Every structure is written in C-alpha cells, then in structure tokens.
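testing teh design pipeline on a random one, pls ignore if ur not involved
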C-alpha cells in the first residue's frame, strides 16, 4: 500500500482503492470511527498507512480491489442513494449489489423522489474523478414543474442565481413544453434544481437524470442497469490515460 515514491498513502485513499466508498465518503467513515489500523481505531482522515499494516472496516479486514466495476443504473423514484437506512426504505444499491460479489457504492446521488442515471462502482479513484467540481462533466435532466416555466426564469438560471450565499447555475436548457424543460448542469450540487425552482415558487413534480458526461440512459428501463462500456470509460479519463 505504497505510492510511486515508496511512501505510505493516506488512509482514505487506501480505503477508496479497496472499493469501500469514494475518497470523500471514506473520510466520513473514518470520522465515524468505523476504521481501524493494526487494531487501533483511527478517526483522522489524513493518517497514513504502510506496507504490512492491517486495515479493517467495520471489523473486517479490507484489501485493494484487483478488478473494478462500473455500472449505470436507471434509479426509480422512491429509492434512496445510501448504504443503509434506519427507516428501511428501498435502497438503489439493492437493485445492483446482489448481482456482484464485491462491495459497490454510488457515485454522487439522486434524492429519494428523483430518478434516472446514477453510477455504481468499487473504484474510488473513478468516483473522485466524476464528482470533483473541476471535472466539468455535464449532467442532463428532464424537469417537470407544477406550473409554467417562463423563459425569463430559465435565463436567470443560466446567468446564475444566489440563494443563501450559494451560487446555482445551469449551463444550457431546452424547453419541451410550458411546464417541462431539459436542463444541463456541470457541478450539480445536491438538490440544486429543486432549490432553484422552489426559490421562484415552483414545485418540481418530476426530476429525471438522463445523462452523466458521455453516458446516457438510452432505452434502459427503470430499475435496470448495465455495465459502462470501455469507450464510455475512456471519455472520462484524463489526457494521461488515468482517472
């Protein structure tokens, strides 16, 4: 578990390479006291691990994955993007996990009532690449509101609006009918679209993500999933050929 310089690597990086979660997700798991190194619980994400260290997550030893999986799911509404839920609501993960013998996690999220494209993987480096704000990968949605969506409102979204000191902006839009629009976002903050619409007195009735970067749902049915192709994965890679 060393990097190219022969030094140790950060604990959250190692866990991400083990397919536990994204780097950011692993930082949260560490802070929750769920990770131990050589029998000692670690809560500082910056801690480093070295060859010969024994790393455990929830009491089970973990090792770096040798095979990675990249999966696209068409999430139905009513499914939660989480690893577990105290209210026993259906998990999007359950639609995929039983078909694989490695631990998978979702990349980003869709809220409970939203539907559409979401990735699952056991590759933390891939997840980091997709979710980082600087990646610039587009995310496209079909949004249906409870009333007419005006052109001036959509232009405001394109220019950018600030709500509670947070800037929200869409890259492009295409209006299908008076109450339905295609929106293209870059950063995609959590619940961003619902927050923008709510700020102008509109309620989102339907929010369906149809594309992440070069990967589109196409004819994939609700609740179904498929492997992301090699060609699609290549489109996510950086110029040096790595995530």
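output:
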């Amino acid at each position: 578990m060393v990097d190219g310089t022969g030094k140790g690597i950060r604990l959250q990086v190692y866990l991400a390479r083990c397919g536990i979660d994204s780097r950011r997700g692993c930082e949260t798991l560490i802070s929750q006291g769920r990770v131990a190194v050589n029998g000692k619980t670690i809560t500082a994400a910056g801690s480093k691990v070295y060859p010969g260290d024994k790393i455990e997550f929830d009491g089970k030893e973990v090792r770096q994955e040798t095979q990675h999986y990249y999966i696209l799911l068409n999430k139905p509404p009513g499914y939660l993007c989480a690893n577990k839920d105290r209210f026993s609501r259906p998990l999007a993960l359950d639609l995929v996990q039983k078909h694989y013998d490695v631990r998978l996690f979702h990349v980003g999220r869709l809220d409970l009532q939203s539907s559409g494209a979401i990735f699952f993987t056991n590759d933390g480096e891939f997840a980091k690449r997709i979710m980082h704000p600087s990646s610039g990968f587009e995310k496209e949605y079909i949004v249906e509101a409870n009333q007419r969506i005006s052109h001036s409102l959509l232009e405001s979204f394109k220019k950018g609006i600030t709500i509670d000191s947070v800037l929200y902006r869409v890259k492009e839009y295409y209006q299908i009918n008076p109450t339905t629009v295609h929106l293209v976002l870059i950063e995609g903050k959590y619940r961003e679209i619902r927050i923008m619409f709510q700020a102008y007195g509109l309620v989102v009735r339907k929010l369906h993500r149809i594309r992440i970067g070069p990967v589109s749902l196409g004819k994939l049915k609700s609740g179904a999933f498929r492997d992301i192709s090699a060609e699609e994965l290549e489109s996510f890679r950086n110029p040096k050929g790595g995530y």
